[in-house]
Amino acid sequence: MRDIIVAAAVALVVSMLGTPIAIRLFGRRGYGQNIREEGPQGHYDKKGTPTMGGTVIVIAALLGYAVAHLATMLSANPSPPTASALLVLFLMTGLGVVGFLDDFIKIYKQRSLGLRSGAKALGQLLVGVVFAILVVRFPNAYAVTPAETRLSFLRDFGPSIGLIGFIIWVLIMIVGFSNAVNLTDGLDGLASGATGVVLASYVLIGNWQLRNSCTTAILGPNCYIVRDPLDLAVVAAAVLGALIGFLWWNAPPAKIFMGDTGSLALGGVIAGLAITTRTQLLLLLLAGLTVVITSSVIIQVGFFKMTRKRIFRMAPLQHHFELKGWAETTIVVRFWLIAMLCAAAGLGLFYVEWMPKT
Fold it and tell me: pLDDT tens-digit profile of 33-57?
């Protein structure tokens, strides 16, 4: 528990103090956001707002995790970094680098599109393949690896889908959720708050899995076979702390945007946590808001191609409500509430499944 508190506190302080430095630095260098011409008119006022704030989130989270483990190394019971946590942090950082390149090209060429879609997808796929291959290796003393080549909901189920099938499934999750958070990042503070509740859920899930681990508790049908549940909770806490510190400056009216650097990294970290905690399909509910927003884009594009008509005034969904006249803060707060309800439903389902059957 101490590791979780230290990681969250350090990441929060680094992010809270580091973000205004990034605002001044990026502002002086002209690293400002470009606005799509077809977007809501109210967004034109945001043109030039510093972007790439996701770099602060990633750095703060890595520092928070590192300091938490350095602190324990000086104690009587040192806890070195684990394979599961390092792989999730690798996934977050790797996707953050892809997003950083995308953001930098947007700024350098002064356009709303950065990396070409093929190059961006290739970067995501390369990072995802390395993660998928390594995550089924590194068994611990109980021969438990960070993940297995099986699907999972509240725990692993069914037969192995094979390494190739597992790699494809992991890539779908990583690309899907990194792009889902990217689509959600359309209003001040929306993606930060929505992802924050998912990360908070994984702090609780990691703690619960530790307390009911098959390696420490009496073996039974309700114990969890997860390699490093506590350290995964530390990762979630570190990223959550960094996100809260960033949200202080990203809340409406935003002084800085996270950019693709942040959205891709955050999407990657929640996908990585879902894979390593064996709750892959549960993430669809925990991150229900991002799933709904992404679905709105798929529905809009598909329906338009079939009928040449639109269901929503604009996709993603948050811009539909903007064009209907809702205030930005109203949309953000209401969508945060939806995100909280989705996370609460997911946690409730997770707990109910664990309860002994009578």
Answer: 655 555 555 555 566 688 889 999 9
Q: CB 354: neighbour CB atoms within 10 A?
A: 16
C-alpha–C-alpha distance, residues 105 and 107, integer Å: 5
Strand, coil or helix: 152:
strand
d(CA 265, CA 268): 5
DSSP sequence for 8-37: HHHHHHHHHHHHHHHHHHHHHTT-B----T
In the Cβ-directed half-sphere of 7, how many Cα atoms lie within 13 Å?
Answer: 27
Angstrom distance (rounded) from CA 335 to CA 342: 11
Q: Which of 231, 232, 212 lies closest to 222, judged by CA?
A: 212
pLDDT at 220: 62
Q: What is the mean pLDDT of each run of 10 residues along the chain (358 residues)?
A: 93 96 83 57 63 94 96 77 97 96 78 71 94 96 94 94 97 96 92 96 96 73 89 98 96 90 96 98 97 95 91 91 92 96 97 76
Tokens describing residue 320: 């539909």
Q: What is the maximum span of the chain, computed from C-alpha positions, in angstroms?
A: 67
Residue given tokens 């599109």 in the structure block: 113
Residue labelled with tokens 């994984």: 202
Question: What's the first-to-final CA gap in the chain, in angstroms?
Answer: 31
Q: What are phi and psi of 152, to 5 degrees?
A: -145, 150
Q: For residues 115 and 132, what is the distance between their CA atoms, to the nearest angstrom? A: 24
Sequence spans of domains, the chain = 2-284
CA distance 301 to 297: 6
Q: Residue 356 gets which letter from DSSP? A: P
Q: Residue 352: how many CB atoms within 10 A of its CB?
A: 9
